[in-house]
User: Which sequence fits this backbone?
């Protein structure tokens, strides 16, 4: 029996990071699963990770029910009650259903804690103890603890006693342990034929097997009060796989890429000529016949990057992850030229000072107007490869150095603050860093609201944030915008139909202060759902100001990942949706959002890792 509270699916996402976290889990299913499927045709399936409840909590004498809000987390719904637990207790979980793969069982806890560093978990069927570690007070992330090996071989009938023992951060202070939910679940990945329109026509054959599909309305888990009525849950699944045993990866990759480019929705916005792109890509594919899959991927990606330059349309391959391209130099655009901002190699650091301008890389002259991405393509090499660099130092002296790429470079902590980093800048201002928008964001924000609301200004740093989950973004905004609001507008890819998405007012007591002022920090790598946050806060939260040294990325679309049968190659694409996302009925694709206050970066020390001129000017206003 399936419990809807436990069911997880691969949903609409706006950041490829989320899909990448899921894809490795699916590879075994893609490569070895699916017995009985017809492989004589090119079929596309969507993948769903479903979670069956095995045991669930039935509170006993050791807990006291109380009114207590828990924020929703991914597809875990918001709760309005919790249970006050002793620091050392046993929770009896009642058997909910039997499953075959008990070795895959995961224990999930939704917890709010104060002064607890860790919880020791022990199951009666095993003497082994597991640890759940907490890094701060507040709502903890219900990521789950693998307990399958503790259950395998034991008595799986009847109640399951789970012993919980809390350890304090400070032994001299009291602990608080509020338990919202507790259950044992078992995960499984299933595959289903995709109803997406492009797969109903050649070279795909989904139309031959999708006639009897039952489609359900899109489910926003209570976040939206309006969404286009015709959109279906099954078409929104982001993780897709192709099955066809009669074609090799190169042929499937080429056919799929051409079909997606034929359906690509942003030719006008990116000032591209569709017929020319299709012709050039077809010619490129024809000339890769003798290349390996890895070489073909590299060749096609170079074309996509140089001609389309859309971060939501690219080919991924295990080749790139097996042999990563890297550089010991971090470069940024400073006052109109690309300069060295940081050196991550101890020996090279003494030879190439920050602020140096790169003149040549392995003999290739670097133009004065070269972009950061162009310079990085020349700098990044495989481990062991040699690079000869000619540069002009800040003192005006030209020099040349030769070095080899190391196996790995460690990014200095000051180059990118940790996701959800939080600190108080002064008595009136707090700082909050968002590197990605996922289920953790609204939960973490809710935990920090008391501290955030103790100051009148909140700096939200979205620099480098490539986006994330639409629903998580909507939940986060609902903690700041205290009313229903229009999240974004939509226009049909094929036709002139328009619609919009409306977010429900959040009934939970997680509210940013009404008189608070928000400062947003952005850069050219701020994209997707992060751009939605900017637009909505500027529109619905009075006094919001945007600061940055440049406009945002201008890449706002719904993303899917299509895996090839080899399990090693795939395409990330924004060419499968029925709608294009608009802000105030206008597209920002390729143009981005311009800051209210543009800060001129005149030297390397003005950059974020050092003096951070953008932040300093923003908080001085």
Assistant:
């Amino acid at each position: 029996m399936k419990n809807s509270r436990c069911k997880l699916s691969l949903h609409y996402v706006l950041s490829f990071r989320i899909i990448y976290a899921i894809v490795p889990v699916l590879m075994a299913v893609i490569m070895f699963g699916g017995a009985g499927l017809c492989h004589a045709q090119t079929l596309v399936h969507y993948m769903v990770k479903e979670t069956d409840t095995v045991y669930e909590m039935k509170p006993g004498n050791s807990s006291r029910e109380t009114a207590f809000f828990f924020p929703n987390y991914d597809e875990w719904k918001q709760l309005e009650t919790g249970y006050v637990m002793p620091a050392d207790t046993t929770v009896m979980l009642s058997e909910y259903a039997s499953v075959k793969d008990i070795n895959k069982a995961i224990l999930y806890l939704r917890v709010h804690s104060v002064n607890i560093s860790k919880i020791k978990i022990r199951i009666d069927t095993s003497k082994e103890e597991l640890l759940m570690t907490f890094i701060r007070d507040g709502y903890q992330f219900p990521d789950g603890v693998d307990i399958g090996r503790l259950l395998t071989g034991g008595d799986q009938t009847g109640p399951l006693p789970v012993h919980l023992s809390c350890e304090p951060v400070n032994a001299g202070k009291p602990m608080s342990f509020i338990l919202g939910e507790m259950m044992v679940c078992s995960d499984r990945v299933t595959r289903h034929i995709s109803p997406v329109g492009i797969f109903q026509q050649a070279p795909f054959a989904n139309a031959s097997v999708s006639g009897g599909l039952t489609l359900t309305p899109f489910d926003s888990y209570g976040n939206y009060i309006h969404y286009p009525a015709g959109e279906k849950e099954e078409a929104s699944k982001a993780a897709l796989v192709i099955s066809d045993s009669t074609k090799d990866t190169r042929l499937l990759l080429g056919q799929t890429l051409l079909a997606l480019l034929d359906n690509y929705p942003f030719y006008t916005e990116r000032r591209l000529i569709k017929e020319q792109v299709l012709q050039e890509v077809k010619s490129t594919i024809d000339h890769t016949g003798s290349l390996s899959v890895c070489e073909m991927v590299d060749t096609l990606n170079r074309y996509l990057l140089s001609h389309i330059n859309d971060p939501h349309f690219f080919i991924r391959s295990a080749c790139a992850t097996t042999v990563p391209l890297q550089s010991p130099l971090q470069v940024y655009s400073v006052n109109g030229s690309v300069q060295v901002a940081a050196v991550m190699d101890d020996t090279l650091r003494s030879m190439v000072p920050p602020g140096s301008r790169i003149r040549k890389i392995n003999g290739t002259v670097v133009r004065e107007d070269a972009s950061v991405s162009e310079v990085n393509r020349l700098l990044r090499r495989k481990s062991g490869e040699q690079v000869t660099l000619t540069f002009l130092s800040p003192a005006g002296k030209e020099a040349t150095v030769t070095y080899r790429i190391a196996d790995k470079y460690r990014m200095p902590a000051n180059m990118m603050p940790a996701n959800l980093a939080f600190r108080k800048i002064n008595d009136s201002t707090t700082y909050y860093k968002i590197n990605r928008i996922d289920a953790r964001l609204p939960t973490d924000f809710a935990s920090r609201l008391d501290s955030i609301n103790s100051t009148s200004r909140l700096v939200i740093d979205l620099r480098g944030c490539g986006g994330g989950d639409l629903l998580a973004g909507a939940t986060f905004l609902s903690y700041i915008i205290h009313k229903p609001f229009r999240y974004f507008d939509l226009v049909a890819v094929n036709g002139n139909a328009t619609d919009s998405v409306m977010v429900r007012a959040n009934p939970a007591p997680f509210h940013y202060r009404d008189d608070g002022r928000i400062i947003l920090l952005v850069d050219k790598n701020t994209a997707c759902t992060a751009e939605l946050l900017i637009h909505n806060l500027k529109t619905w939260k009075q006094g919001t100001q945007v600061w940055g040294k440049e406009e945002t990325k201008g890449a706002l679309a719904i993303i899917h990942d299509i895996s090839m049968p080899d399990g090693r190659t795939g395409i990330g694409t924004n060419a499968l949706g029925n709608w294009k996302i608009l802000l105030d009925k206008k597209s920002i694709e390729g143009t981005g959002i311009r800051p209210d206050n543009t800060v001129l970066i005149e030297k390397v020390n003005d950059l974020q890792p050092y003096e951070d001129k953008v932040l300093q000017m923003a908080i001085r206003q």
User: Anything to note?
Assistant: The radius of gyration is 26 Å. Confidence is low (pLDDT under 50) at residues 1-39.
